[in-house]
Write a structure and sequence with these properties.
InterPro entries: Lysozyme-like_dom_sf. This protein is mainly α. It contains twelve helices and seven strands.
């Protein structure tokens, strides 16, 4: 083999290829190969399985730029946020749980539930919390009804369009918007509106739906640079900045472990 123009000419195959550690860019030039590896991800998330790490790394490398994840800072922030939401990427296909065992917490979390049985009896818009323990579908249908494309309680949309994927894609309007974007960009035959469980049963769609959510909430709204704080990125995802300390720790771990120059 001989070198020519930064590439290596293979006399056997009569093809020019970039040397190890380099890859060809859109202009045909050899540039540093900054693909994220399984090993990179496991430095940040040590409890992540090899198979999950391989899947996530491949999606980031193949599709990350489509979602504006194309710099160190972009990747660090994405991993910090998605890593927190998935508990360290123990799972990629995450489905929101609406199962409650404590009535008081249910009533405290959702205003449509009350611990006052008299109020619930006299107000058709209130529900007596103790009656709905261990009933995931009813809780979701009540709590998530009548907004963002979801129909009334009887429609079942609350449970049907509950959170799925690494960023918990929720509400019918969001499922529809993701479907339109995905169909136009990748595959016209995927329909998460008629089959929302596909987001939970398919690791790739679980990640891509999360990337889409991250793009629409963060990348399209915030210019991420070296001075962007974790709190600034967290607010569009969780307005109460819940879990901020853990998100900061994961960001710092990603920054310390992954650096492509």
């Amino acid at each position: 083999m001989t070198r020519t123009g930064g590439k290596i000419y293979d006399t056997a195959t009569k093809k020019c290829n970039c040397p190890e550690g380099k890859k060809e860019d859109d202009n045909g030039n050899c540039v540093d190969d900054c693909d994220t590896s399984k090993e990179d991800l496991k430095k940040v998330f040590p409890n992540m399985s090899d198979s999950k790490a391989e899947t996530l790394a491949k999606i980031i490398n193949d599709k990350g730029r489509d979602f504006g994840i194309d710099s160190n800072e972009d990747l660090w922030h994405f991993l910090a946020q998605a890593g927190h939401e998935t508990g360290g990427f123990n799972k990629l296909s995450v489905t929101e749980s609406t199962y409650w065992t404590t009535a008081s917490k249910l009533a405290k979390t959702y205003k449509k539930f009350t611990m006052d049985s008299i109020k619930a009896k006299n107000d058709k818009n209130l529900y007596y919390a103790p009656d709905y323990l261990k009933n995931s579908s009813d809780v979701a249908n009540i709590a998530m009804c009548c907004r963002y494309g979801n129909g009334n309680v009887a429609s079942g949309h609350g449970y049907r369009y509950r959170g799925r994927g690494i960023f918990q894609l929720t509400w019918k309007d969001n499922y529809k918007a993701f479907k339109t974007w995905y169909n136009n960009k990748y595959d016209p035959d995927i329909d998460p509106v008629s089959n929302p469980d596909i987001i939970a049963s398919n690791d790739t769609l679980a990640v891509l739906s999360g990337m889409w959510y991250y793009k629409t909430r963060v990348v399209d709204k915030i210019t991420i640079s070296s001075s962007t704080t974790v709190k600034a990125v967290t607010k569009p995802i969780n307005s109460a900045t819940k879990g901020l300390s853990d998100r900061k720790k994961k960001f710092q771990k990603a920054k310390d472990s992954i650096n492509c120059k």
